[in-house]
Specification:
- The structure holds two protein chains of two kinds.
- The model of chain A has no long low-confidence stretch (mean pLDDT 91).
- Chain A folds into two domains: 2-197 and 376-391, Rossmann fold, CATH 3.40.50.2000; 208-373, Rossmann fold.
- In chain A, the strands form two sheets. Chain A has a six-stranded parallel sheet, with helices on both faces. A six-stranded parallel sheet of chain A has the order 9-8-7-10-11-12, with helices on both faces.
- In chain A, α4 packs parallel to α6 and α9 (233-246) packs parallel to α10.
- Chain A is globular, with a radius of gyration of 21 Å.
- In chain A, 45% of the residues lie in helices and 17% in strands.
- By secondary structure, chain A is of the alpha/beta class.
- Chain B is an alpha/beta fold.
- Chain B folds into two domains: 7-305, Alpha-Beta Barrel (7-stranded beta/alpha barrel); 322-413.
- Chain B contains 17 helices and ten strands.
- Chain B is globular, with a radius of gyration of 22 Å.
- Chain A binds chain B through residues 242, 246, 334-335, 337-338, 345-346, 348-350, 352-353, 356-360, 362-364, 366-367, 371, and chain B through 24-26, 326-328, 330-332, 369, 372-373, 375, 385-386, 388-389, 391-392, 395-396.
- Chain B: InterPro entries: GH57_Enzymes, Glyco_hydro/deAcase_b/a-brl, Glyco_hydro_57_N.
- Chain B: One of its GO terms (molecular function) is hydrolase activity.
- Chain B: Belongs to the glycosyl hydrolase 57 family.
Chain lengths: 392, 421
């Protein structure tokens, strides 16, 4: 079986979960004998030994690609400041569609598989040329990125067009699947939820600096993710304030970067807890694993999270997890603590409980590790294959 | 030997715990009422009792009273937990009255257990004995009966418990008729616990074992459409009983009373089944019903059953793992039981009562993570969002309790008692 996979980014040149998820899925599919032509918009010079990476525009390289997570308000800001042209946001996406034509004419495939709205115009273009079944993978919708606030009408239109055109849609969680039905008017019969998988950590090792803190009896509460509206960093700060009132020996580590970082620092300063915060910036690989391992509890207070792979990464690193009920991962991770993202008191209550009652993290750790044994890309690939087979 | 048809021995467990409300760390030191949830959730004890009374207890009582009137040879037994009776007195006197009416017929035996529906036998013998005394006193006060047969919380049983009950003069004790303790033997006979020879001239306590296959056909499988015997009729059930003819003398059907109307619904025909059962059973003139103490009078002991380890009526393991299987459960149990001496030294009634209410086995059952992700019977019975939520509220409450204890200990013993935080 041959799949024409239309992507936007791949690690190590990724800005978040989209690239990681595409990579994990493609790798597992190729292990099952699927031949994958993975298309990227520009020449990013990425090597792979299990799939053919192709560039819709071979000649252009190093061009700054917009991250897949820009919200409408961020986009407006960027346009106003002049760093991005008015049409850049959409134009890169449309350019991709224009450029993919030639590749699609040359290549053969049984399935066209696209990932999120950035690739939808290109995927639809490929279908025009190749006349093969079209699969849309939905890692996030405009509703998730904007946290239910300002929607970008153009993005919404592109999403809706792509979804309507697709023969099958694969959302990464039940919640986002429901959004597709209720907000985009998609027929639920076209939808197959496939949860993401997670890789084992590379090495178990702990960052020495944090180890020193831990030796002094401090407990580490971790926020890891893009510091953007969608991830609920402001709720994390509010909960941190309450926690430190009741549990003075708690330290709050923030790993990641994003447009709300300044706001987060200001908020922590206003609440008088900024001295309890450590900002590490964006981490990947072993460094990321070591911060998970240093943490006594990982908190994911996302406002709207189609899946939330970081929660599973935390479990893989044997860290107890608190997730918002507004996340896809809360559907598959029963052995976690769950809170509504807005209920900062309950979030604090649960953080304190994990720090205070030693048997609680012990059982959370043991049971959650056991629970996610089957959440692998291998299993996700099996389910995606099932969808493919129904189409050809 | 002449074989007769078996006797049916019915025992219904009637219990509702005092569930702990959602109690946050911020409530510690401020709110000392742990059991007064007033939300619309399943933690609202008053609401739950009202709901179950309407769906199960009241219609079942009415039906049983009719059956007692109609069939002179029909009888059965109840075991009430003290915390259940306490809630009846407070929230639903009408229901208490209806239970009293049943007992007044003289054909409903009442069994003995711990007032607080606790597993205290395995943690503190003096505490356990106090709770049994409290229970039997409450039964006497409300029903004017003195229980002669003992059943422990969750039917948790071993040789030691049988030895204790024997010494206390109980005539019989109940346990699960689990295969591993019986081996090739059948639960349909009267047995004797393995606790050595009786003193001269004294009768030894007897052991009644639950026929879990037939009991669970009613309690668990009745509404299960995938079960090959569905739908279960009184006729079919009676034919299974009659088949025992010659292979047993007594069939012990032990189950939660909530089976009738709460676990199995009226809409699925559970009341029709119960209504028809005595008549069908008694159609055969050799068949009869006995209460536990009648059973041990009527039939001889056939063998000795040795139970050196704890056997309960829960889950496929039939052990205590549903209450003590994980770290959060064990730490909660340890934390509550280690307060015993300090609580008792205060001589404070309210503290003692709260502490005992925190021992009710259901609190620990709600913390069970066994099979949690598969979502089975544990989830069905859990009023909390997760076992971890149950644990968090419990530990926060216990910390508030410790503060109160510290306060009271200061007054009584001039600060000599140090409370472990």
């Amino acid at each position: 079986m041959k799949v024409f996979m239309v992507g936007w980014e791949l690690p190590p040149l990724n800005s978040g979960g989209l690239g990681e998820a595409c990579y994990g899925l493609a790798k597992a599919l190729s292990k099952k004998g699927v031949t994958i032509n993975f298309i990227l918009p520009y020449n990013l010079n990425i090597k792979s030994d299990f799939m053919n990476i192709m560039y819709a525009n071979e000649k252009v390289s190093g061009k700054k690609i917009l991250g897949p997570y820009l919200t409408y308000s961020q986009w407006l800001k960027a346009v106003k400041s002049g760093s991005v042209g008015f049409h850049d946001y959409i134009s890169q996406v449309l350019e991709y569609a224009e450029n993919i034509k030639d590749l699609a004419k040359k290549e053969r495939a049984d399935i066209i598989h696209m990932h999120d709205w950035l690739t939808f115009p290109a995927g639809m273009m490929a279908q025009d040329v190749m006349s093969k079944p079209l699969v849309a993978h939905v890692h996030a919708t405009e509703y998730d990125r904007s946290g239910g606030g300002f929607l970008n009408g153009n993005v919404f239109r592109i999403e809706k067009d792509g979804l309507e055109r697709s023969d099958r849609i694969i959302p990464v969680g039940g919640r986002v699947g429901k959004t597709l039905v209720s907000k985009y008017g998609i027929d639920h019969k076209k939808i197959n939820v496939v949860y993401n998988g997670v890789e084992d950590p590379q090495k178990p090792c702990i960052t020495p600096a944090l180890l020193n803190l831990k030796k002094l009896g401090y407990k580490i509460v971790l926020f890891l993710g893009r510091i953007t509206l969608q991830k609920g960093p402001d709720y994390f700060v509010k909960a941190a304030k309450i926690v430190s009132d009741y549990y003075p020996k708690a330290v709050f580590v923030v790993t990641g970067s994003g447009d709300m970082q300044t706001q987060m620092i200001c908020e922590a300063t206003n609440l008088g807890v900024v001295d309890k915060f450590i900002f590490t910036g964006f981490l990947r690989g072993v460094e990321k694993d070591s911060i998970y391992q240093a943490a006594d509890v990982y908190v994911m207070p996302s406002i709207s999270e189609p899946f939330g792979i970081t929660a599973l990464e935390a479990v893989k690193n044997r860290t107890p997890v608190i997730v918002s009920k507004q996340s896809g991962v809360s559907e598959v991770l029963q052995n976690s603590l769950k809170v509504d993202f807005w209920d900062v008191e309950e979030m604090a209550n649960k953080i304190i409980a994990v720090l205070k009652y030693k048997s609680l993290p012990k059982d959370l750790r043991r049971e959650s590790v056991r629970e996610i044994v089957n959440l692998t890309w291998d299993r996700s690939a099996d389910e995606v294959l099932k969808v493919y087979k129904q189409l050809i | 030997m002449i074989f007769c048809m078996p006797s049916i021995c019915l025992y219904f467990q009637v219990h509702q715990p005092m569930r702990i409300k959602k109690y946050r760390v911020f409530d510690i030191g401020k709110d000392h009422n742990y059991f007064n949830d007033s939300s619309f959730t399943a933690l609202n004890n008053k609401n739950i009792l009202e709901k179950v009374a309407k769906k199960a207890y009241l219609p079942a009582n009415e039906l049983l009273l009719d059956l007692l009137k109609k069939h002179k040879n029909f009888n059965f037994s109840f075991s009430f937990s003290g915390v259940f009776l306490e809630q009846l007195k407070k929230f639903n006197p009408a229901l208490l009255k209806s239970f009293k009416a049943l007992v007044k017929t003289g054909r409903v035996e009442l069994l003995s257990e711990t007032y607080y529906h606790s597993l205290s036998f395995f943690y503190s013998l003096p505490e356990f004995e106090s709770q049994v005394e409290l229970h039997d006193k409450e039964i006497f006060d409300l029903f004017n009966k003195r229980p002669q047969v003992f059943r422990n919380t969750e039917l948790a049983y071993n040789n030691d418990l049988a030895y204790w009950a024997d010494r206390k003069g109980y005539k019989a004790i109940l346990a699960e008729g689990w295969d591993t303790i019986l081996g090739w033997r059948s639960p349909n006979f009267i047995y004797e616990p393995n606790i050595g020879q009786a003193k001269k001239g004294k009768k030894r306590i007897k052991l009644l074992l639950k026929n879990y296959k037939l009991s669970d056909d009613i309690a668990f499988r009745f509404s299960e459409k995938r079960w090959k015997e569905w739908p279960l009729t009184a006729e079919k059930f009676t034919s299974w009983i009659n088949r025992i003819n010659g292979n047993g003398e007594i069939v012990n059907l032990f189950m939660d009373y909530e089976t009738f109307g709460e676990h199995q619904w009226k809409e699925h025909g559970i009341f029709d089944f119960l209504k028809a059962l005595p008549e069908k059973i008694l159609e055969h003139k050799d068949n009869n019903f006995v209460t536990p103490s009648q059973a041990v009078e009527k039939y001889p002991v056939r063998d000795t059953v040795d139970v050196p380890y704890i056997v309960t009526w829960a889950d496929s393991e039939r052990d205590l793992s549903a209450w003590t299987g994980n770290n959060i459960q064990r730490s909660a149990l340890k934390n509550v039981y280690e307060l015993e001496q300090k609580v008792k030294k205060t001589n404070n009634k309210k503290l003692l009562d709260d502490w005992r209410k925190l021992q009710t086995s259901d609190h620990f059952y709600y913390m069970c993570t066994k099979w949690f992700s598969d979502g089975d019977v544990h989830k069905y019975f859990n009023p909390y969002e997760s076992p971890y939520d149950a644990f968090i509220s419990y530990m926060n409450v216990l910390n508030d309790f410790k503060l109160r204890l510290k306060e009271k200990s200061k007054g009584n013993c001039a600060g000599r008692i140090k409370i472990v935080e």
